[in-house]
Design brief:
Blueprint lengths: L5 H19 L2 E3 L7 E7 L3 E6 L4 E5 L7 E5 L8 E8 L4 E9 L8 E9 L5 E6 L7 E6 L5 E5 L4 E5 L7 E5 L6 E7 L2 E6 L4 E5 L11 E2 L1 E2 L6 E7 L2 E6 L4 E8 L2 E8 L5 E7 L2 E6 L4 E6 L3
Parallel strand pairs: 18-22
Antiparallel strand pairs: 1-25, 2-3, 3-4, 4-5, 6-7, 7-8, 8-9, 10-11, 11-12, 12-13, 14-15, 15-16, 16-17, 19-20, 20-21, 21-22, 23-24, 24-25
Length: about 300
């Protein structure tokens, strides 16, 4: 029995604070430390879905669990197959994923990549669209206000657009400044992308007819290093900096932006995913999915 003295009260407070911290943060190993989770997303019911950049598997972690289960197995696609971008599209019961498969006997290595659509509930294959060209890098995607899926191709400096209900994407924009394009998201209806090669952030203007214009460079008040996965929430852009081990929140004001570091000391963070009051992070270098309270 605990007698209500100062020491006991302090202990109880520490326990409550410990439980509160545990409830607001998670540290989940995805298979093993070498799984290289490149991207992640959250499905309805709080199910965490995580792709692997070192295996042909996509994993899921049920809400409240800390154990990753195999959800998609693409080992039949060819040796070396792995996954980049992940995006839960609840309105269509679809998990969008970027699948990459090395081309045998190519030096330097080339890859054939595909946009894959899997049933969000069962993992069954539904849609496949192969990116054009002998070498491509399907990296990430975002759903626009028009309900279309916008897809980045890092190797070729391109953005593709898959209209809602379509099974074949079309070229939306190709531009020299997009060589190295990685993260993509919409903030307040405006399209933003980053460049993992050159550490830049761009706004993509779109006219009334839906045609993309020349990317506009957004000046940031401090450097970001290796901007990778990027998502929008609470009026800000959240970016994983794979080159600095940081997660940053970016507030855009016209053609300028302010950068605030909200977490650091991570091992190659490559993705962020806002989910309610939680921000999930893919820590590729540690083989983990970790979370933190969503900044206000």
């Amino acid at each position: 029995m605990c007698i209500l003295n100062a020491r006991c009260i302090a202990t109880c407070v520490a326990l409550v604070m410990g439980f509160t911290h545990a409830a607001s943060a998670a540290d989940i190993l995805i298979a093993d430390a070498k799984s290289q989770p490149e991207s992640l997303t959250v499905a309805p019911g709080g199910v965490l879905i995580v792709g692997s950049a070192s295996t042909p598997f996509i994993y899921k972690v049920p809400s409240g669990s800390s154990t990753a289960e195999k959800f998609v197995d693409a080992s039949a696609e060819g040796p070396g197959t792995f996954f980049f971008g992940m995006l839960a599209d609840a309105s269509n019961n679809m998990l969008w994923a970027c699948q990459l498969t090395p081309v045998p006997n190519t030096h330097p290595v080339q890859r054939h990549t595909a946009l894959r659509g899997f049933d969000l509930s069962t993992g069954a294959a539904k849609i496949r669209w192969d990116l054009p060209g002998d070498n491509s890098t399907c990296n990430d995607f975002s759903i626009g206000p028009d309900k279309a899926l916008y897809i980045t191709d890092t190797a070729n400096g391109k953005i593709y657009k898959l209209p809602s209900g379509a099974s074949t994407a079309e070229l939306f924009l190709e531009h020299r400044t997009l060589m190295g394009i990685d993260g993509i998201t919409f903030l307040n209806g405006t399209l933003y992308v980053n460049n993992v090669f050159f550490n830049n952030l761009y706004r993509i203007p779109v006219d009334a007819a839906g045609k993309a214009g020349t990317p506009v460079d957004i000046w940031m008040d401090q450097p970001v290093k290796g901007p990778d996965g990027m998502r929008a929430a609470n009026g800000k852009l959240f970016v994983a900096e794979n080159g600095s081990g940081k997660i940053s929140a970016i507030t855009v004001n016209g053609d300028k932006a302010s950068v605030t570091v909200i977490k650091e000391g991570l091992k190659t963070p490559t993705a962020v995913e806002p989910a309610g009051d939680t921000l999930w992070i893919a820590e590729r270098g540690a083989g983990k999915a970790v979370s933190m309270p969503m900044p206000k």
